[in-house]
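Pipeline run #58 for the internal structure catalog. This entry was flagged by the ingest filter as a single-chain record with no existing model, so it goes straight to prediction. Upstream metadata was stripped on purpose; only the residue string is passed forward. Reviewer on rotation: M.T. Logging verbosity set to normal.
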Amino acid sequence: MFRQNSINRADGQQRLATYCSSKDHTHHGLRCFINLGLSDTAVNIIPVAFLNSIKNPTLVNFANAGDNCTTFPGTQLLSCPQIEEDIKTCQSLGKSIILSVGGATYTEGGFASAAEATTWATKVWEMFGPANPSSTSLRPFGSASVDGFDMDFEAVSRNMAPFAATLRQLMDATGRKYFLSAAPQCPFPDAAMGEMLSQVAFDFVSVQFYNNYCGANSYVPGTGGNYNFARWDQWARTESVNKNVKVLLGVPGSPSAAGSGYVSGEQLRSVIQYSKQFASFGGVMVW
């Protein structure tokens, strides 16, 4: 997850383009998606995080990116030309950059109505989607456009389904491929995003198989144990809006990356082999 920067230092991670051009993805704070078949190197998609304030984006600093940004005149909203440049560099290398919305520090609680949710989804699209000459919205990443949006809400928030659905509609209307993803917890249904997952067409979900009883660390060879990829596969094939949605195995990248759920490389190999039997399996997400 670029700009999660959980160690909270300006030097805690390298600039975005570093992760796109390097095959060593062990840097601090990188969340990535692999095995989606979008390029010839291991990491295909990198989310920039977090847009943790939708209605007041002047609060968004992308975790210590401010030292490489300025503010738009008369505002506190950050203008980040380095991220703009790096998004374009990554895209030229075949990588997709998506914007992750929410995160553990999101506290706005959603929207008062579906109409308000639609309004703010349109605003987010104008700020981070393809540049529209007729729009007056300020754009933190300048002329760069992200390749989609990731929904990552840790607490129940109102009217998030119409928010995500509007982004889906705006992306689909371009005729170009954009991604809409989500990062639910592994207990099913997800307490915070169950409504979104049942009403909106997602391209993939990066299920957090950690910090819970159903994590990858609970996998038992043969039966699966409490590791519940089978339940998410059932949702993908029979309950989701998009019956071709892919389910990614989300795991921590190190023992300190999550409260619990880290598994060693050899253990992870076994979990992946088990997960591959399910038709919806789409790859691995590393936090």
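catalog note: Residues 4-8, 25-30, 36-41 have pLDDT under 50 and may be disordered.
catalog note: The CA atoms of residues 202 and 244 lie 9 Å apart.
status: ready for reviewer M.T.
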